[in-house]
Design a protein that fits this description.
The chain has one domain. It has nine helices and no strands. The radius of gyration is 18 Å and the shape is globular. α3 packs across α8 and α4 crosses α8. The protein is mostly helical.
Length: about 200
């Protein structure tokens, strides 16, 4: 029978990892867009492009005020390094990723909303300085719906996407799962945390 690892030992080991590769803030931010790894860059570009197109089309369909494609692209790109860590308090995505059932895809898409909202605020802060969030409820709702819809749409098209595109999406999914399990927000009772830190 395996012995329980003292909580202090887990905390100490975890702190070492926080100072290491996956939890260093700078590396976490660059992880999805490491230009030395073409699969990551392609996956990030594919992911962001899909989200921008869905958001843009949704605004067209409901006749909402348009947001320049450039601004949409910036915000969605900024959300990439935030999504994984901000999903930490939530249940991990299905291990089948884009091949999981449709209901799981909607849930996975919705889990990205906090990261997107944080990216929107960071973008506005860059443009205006520190301020109270100024998004209308309608804007928040549109972004949330678009973010939630993109994942199942990608899942639906996954089989028809070229190998390079699928590989890129899988890499981004894996990186976000690494960010999640190494986040300070993750519960120490989380199954992925237990498997990573207490195995």
């Amino acid at each position: 029978m395996s012995q329980a690892i003292p909580a202090g030992k887990v905390a100490a080991d975890r702190q070492v990892q926080y100072d290491g590769e996956f939890t260093n803030i700078g590396k976490n931010a660059l992880m999805p867009v490491d230009f030395r790894i073409t699969t990551q860059v392609g996956g990030a570009a594919f992911y962001v492009t899909a989200e921008v197109l869905v958001s843009w089309l949704l605004r067209k369909v409901i006749k909402a005020p348009a947001i320049p494609l450039k601004d949409l692209a910036i915000v969605h790109a900024m959300s990439l390094p935030l999504i994984g860590g901000m999903q930490a308090p939530m249940e991990a995505n299905n291990s089948l990723a884009y091949e999981a059932p449709l209901t799981e895809q909607f849930m996975a898409g919705a889990k990205g909303i906090p990261g997107l909202m944080a990216a929107v605020y960071a973008h506005q802060t860059f443009l205006k300085g520190f301020h109270r969030p100024q998004l209308s409820f309608k804007d928040v709702a549109i972004m949330a719906v678009a973010k939630t819809l993109t994942r199942p749409l990608l899942s639906f098209a996954y089989g028809a996407i070229p190998d390079a595109g699928r590989n890129g999406l899988d890499v981004i999914e894996h990186l976000q799962s690494l960010q999640r399990v190494n986040s300070r927000l993750v519960s120490e009772d989380d199954p992925d945390f237990v498997a990573t830190w207490k195995a």
